[in-house]
Amino acid sequence: MHDWPAYVRDRLPPLGLRPEREAGIVAELALQLEQAYTDAIALGAGDVEATRRAATQFADWSALAREIREAECRQFASRRTGDHCWNGFAHDVRYALRWLARAPVFAAAMIGTLALGIGGNTAIFSMVDAVALRPLPYRDTARLATIDTVQPKQPEIAPFTSAPDFLDFRARSRAFETVASISPVWSMVMIGHGDTERLEALFVSAGFFPMLGVQPALGRVFTPEEDVPGKDARVVLISHDLWVRRFGGSRDVRGQTVNLDGGAYTVIGVLPEHFRYAGAPMAGTASRIDVWLPMSSNPLAGSLRQVRYLKVIGRLARGVSLQRASDEAKSIGAALARQFPDTDTGFVIGVNSLASQVTGRYRQSMMLLLGAIAFVLLMACANVAGLLLGRASERQREIAVRVALGASRSRLLRQFLVEGAILAALGGALGLVLAAVGIRALTALAPRSLLFPGDVSLDLRALSFTVAAAAASALLAGLPPAWRMVRADLESALREFGRGLTSGTHRLRSVLVVVQIAVALLLLVGSGLLIRSFQRVLDVNPGFDPRNLVTISTQFPASAQTRAQRTSLYQAIHEKLMAIPGVRSVDAVSRLPLGGMSLGRWIFIEGEPMTPENHHDVEYRVATPGYFRTMGMTLRAGRWLDQHDGGASILVNEAAAHLFWPRLDPVGRRVKYGPDSPDWVTVVGVVGNLRHDALDIDPRAEIYTPYAASPLGGPVLVIRTASDAGPLLPLLASAVRSVSSDMPAYNAYEMSTLVDRSTAQRRFVMWLLTGFGAVALLLAAVGIYAMISQAVVQRTRELGLRMALGASPRSAMALVFRQGMRLLGAGMAAGSLAALLLTRLMRNLLFDVRPLDPESFAAAVGMLMLFAVLACYLPARRATRVDPMRALQR
Amino acid sequence: MVATDMSKGSAEMILLALLDARPRHGYELAKMIETGSRSKLQFHVASLYPMLYRLERKGWVEGKWVEKAGERRRRFYRLTRGGRKALADQRRTWREFVNALNHLTGFEHA
Question: How many CA atoms lie within 13 A of A404 on its CB side?
């Protein structure tokens, strides 16, 4: 007597079902064996033979278990019985992997396409995250706000506040828990601890570091006692970089004395390694600050109310909204204007979130890049979906028959989704590698004003983004074929033996190709607009001739205080440099063009009422008489400055001439620096405009005063040479240093780099978007090509028949072309519409180019046409070579 | 894949058709398929039970342990309403499929 249930239990692998269900199945299978055995005995077999016959009933026990598991897991199984259904899923995964392994080139193409899309997105996301999305690295940043004193009359002027106004505001404000002031970046010369070096310094009020929640890496920050107005505390905090570079990272640095600008300062602490103040005190200058000092030590600390040089930020008190703080600031501003009409009339105090101010500068171009790369991923998905659909229509007969014979749709659906998911997962993994490479490239290529090395990394946020992008890709790439399966009119598909399925697939694929063409056009138009803007920016005349022109900055030692000392030092430098062969001329100015806005100066125009509200805030530069000719500027009226001119003569630029004396001759007109000032200064000439901020920002009114009237402590030298000045730079710099060992020479570069730098960010964004446009163009061409090729293969029979009936190869070609051109037309129409709507959002990024610039549109359309025609031509040529006989035999 | 689906699909229809007449147990179904198709259908008994379970999950058949007098306790399967409808659908689809095949292959004119 056999124990058949035990026989089954011994052989059948565990099913992983509920125990009762599993026991029932074992009993039923045992019964089958027992019955087979009994029948065999009844037919006269012996025990051994009957047992053998029974055993043949179930030969492959593990296959049986798998099939049962799969059957038990079908539709709603988990809901009904609580059993899990991963077996069928695992089968789908294995099936998909096998299929990928069978078609390695096809698989590589799809995975590569997705990897490009996902990797590109991850890299760009990481950059955008670092530049514009991630919260600032300070405590509770939502409560940090800038307090900006602006002039509604001249909104282009950067907001600065005076020291007395800052102190009054701080005393009166209740909406802010802390209010702190920050100076512009100061140049200080450090002597000792190695070579004489020029350092970047910031002066901040004592509340600054606690307000940000920044703890020093070593030592302490400033105490309120060290920042009492009128007291010069002579303490300094140094940056981590300076600490390592000049003090060897020694902990003994605390208490050491450093010589800054001739004064002795005690080091009280070292700031954390990656600390940077995000709100650039002045455009493009906050990249590297070496030393931080208390505001009370600033040379301007005791200055008057009209000297506006401070940036102010504050931390909102708990529960106070930005709006309430803003209202309070306005009323304080109004009270100050009533109290000090001479200096505070015409100013309004506003409050803005620090985060939005910091990220606002780049947010738009960053979002543009993120949006554009998302479109590239969309195209990559459309391409993969198209390939999967093509494959689905190749399997049309199999699928039609499978469905008709009872293979469930959900099973097919899942299969397609699993295929999409596997492709996306592999694409995502490869994408991460590409992203790491991409981030490295982005960091290397990005202008320093935008990104710092180390700012961007593949962190958890980037990884989450990659996973999300891959999941989206899985859906986007897997869904169209899967959707097609669900929607397919399977009965008619069956009737027509697959034709219905093919035509539906074909329609869906056409839609995908149309989407790709549309997106490619959109990206091409977008990059075209940026390229044209960039060209226009480069066409802007900077107002000087940057060829064979170099600049070196220097800082006179603190001992050179008097006019005579400074003048003779400058003379010595001038002689040294002029003695170098190849040097044509040497001059000096207080500030170079294209370096961002300077603090400016008030002037009052003769003939206008001498009241505070009639002041004009103008750019102000001190220059040696030869500066204008050395720079290659043009004289529009009057004469140049010469060595006899003192403080009573100025030059103005064209912008000032037009603004203050429209349609009049400005030469001989007079201005004053204050309503009560007894001295008039006279305009002796008008020079062409220079671009102060950047090439794409209009010049503002400017006056130049002679060097003799106000010898500079830190002249910026400009040197014109006979030929390419680049190789001369080290020689020129060392000549400057040789005048005095206490005098640094820094920022030595060719003026053409200054022009390049001012366009660096625009160029960076333009190149990236152009890259995306090129990838989009390629993807669209591949999409069109793949689709048309397949259509030609599918229509071989029809083409053969037509040719057998006398159609020429030309007409076969035309047939194929018509199909491609219809798609192109639809895609172009959709893309143009999208571009019409979306390029408007780019308006602020464009320069001298309208969002609907016809040339950009035409270039994009032309480029896309060219690629589309090529993508159609190759398969169309194949269509002309169809052999009618062989085609009909198929 | 085509071959397995073909046999699976057809076998499912065969099972439904056999159960249309009256409830039967697994061994009886196996016997009937083997003898009824004169062994033409490559249908292994190992596939029978998973298929029955699958049909059960789909709600097309219902299995129940029944003990009849003088017989062993067996699991009997009967067709549900859903099963009857599925059978009718499949019969129609099959007819259309066969017609389509005939039409395409010219089999009916041969």
Answer: 29
Interchain pair A406, B8: CB under 8 A:
yes
CA distances from A594 to A284, A621, A690, A693 (A): 11, 13, 8, 5
Q: A31 vs chain B: nearest CA distance in angstroms?
A: 8
Rounded Cα gap, residues A276 and A274, in angstroms: 6
Tokens of A144: 């940090």
User: pLDDT per residue over A765-816, tens digit each?
Assistant: 888 888 888 888 888 888 888 888 877 877 777 888 888 888 888 888 888 8
Domain residue ranges in chain B: 2-109
Cβ of B30 within 8 Å of Cβ of A32? The answer is yes
Cβ pair A286, A311 in contact under 8 A: no
- State the Rg of chain A over Cα: 38
Question: CB of A398 within 8 Å of any CB in chain B?
Answer: yes
Q: In chain B, whose CA is at the least distance from the CA of A63?
A: B46
User: Helix (H, G, I), strand (E, B), or coil: what is residue B65?
Assistant: strand
A85 touches chain B (CB under 8 A): no
Q: Which fold has domain B2-109?
A: Arc Repressor Mutant, subunit A (1.10.10)
Q: Does A78 touch chain B (CB under 8 A)?
A: no
**Burial of A713 per CB tally in 10 Å (0-12, 13-18, 19+):** middle
**How many angstroms away from the CA of B33 is the closest CA of chain A?**
14
Residue in A173, A244, A258 with CA at minimum distance from that of residue A207: A173
Q: Give mean pLDDT in consecutive 10-residue pieces for chain A, a chain of 890 residues.
A: 87 82 90 90 91 86 86 54 53 80 84 90 89 82 90 76 93 94 84 81 92 92 89 90 90 91 91 78 57 90 83 93 94 94 87 82 83 88 83 65 62 78 90 92 82 76 86 82 65 50 70 90 90 88 91 83 87 93 93 76 88 84 93 94 90 94 93 86 94 84 90 88 87 88 82 84 87 88 84 79 81 85 92 90 86 92 91 85 71
- Give B23-39 as a 3 state SS string: CEEHHHHHHHHHHHCCC
Chain B contact for A77 (CB, 8 A cutoff): yes
Compute the distance between CA of residue A378 and CA of residue A376 in angstroms, rounded to an integer.
Answer: 5
Q: How far apart are CA A878 and CA B38, in angstroms?
A: 51
ipTM for this model: 0.87
Rounded to whole angstroms, how far apart are CA atoms A214 and A358? 18
